[in-house]
Amino acid sequence: MLVKIEAIVRPEKTEQILAKLAEKGHTAVTRMDVYGRGKQAGIHIGDVFYDELPKELLFLVAEAAYEKEIIDVITSQARTSDLGNYGDGRIFVHAIENAYTISSGAEGL
């Protein structure tokens, strides 16, 4: 079975997450700049209210056997302290029925 792992993380954490994923052999990653807010519904810094904050969306598809390893890498690299902080991000995991390579038509990863 395949899983799609989507991680919404702080932009300043992206490079170290990608480097650690590559060390573990997970090099096929897509990343996008995104904006949004979590449960805290924005943030006040002084007199300024930020409704939506810049984040990075990373997603990759892997064999389900690697799910925990990938989650552990992302979590350990994305946290801003030992206990974590609001705004460190979220991870979502989806089951994937199949994948196809466009250039060759090959099925699976």
From TrEMBL:
The record's annotation in SUPFAM superfamilies points to: GlnB-like (SSF54913)
Listed A to Z, the keywords are: Nitrogen fixation, Transcription, Transcription regulation
Q: Which GO terms describe its cellular component?
A: cytosol
Give one GO term, molecular function aspect: enzyme regulator activity
What's an example GO BP annotation here?
regulation of nitrogen utilization
Does the keyword Transcription regulation feature in the UniProt annotation? yes
Q: Mention any Pfam family matching this sequence.
A: P-II
Q: Is Transcription regulation set as a keyword in this record?
A: yes
Known role:
Could be involved in the regulation of nitrogen fixation.
This chain's protein is named Nitrogen regulatory protein P-II family
- Tell me what organism the protein belongs to: Trichococcus collinsii
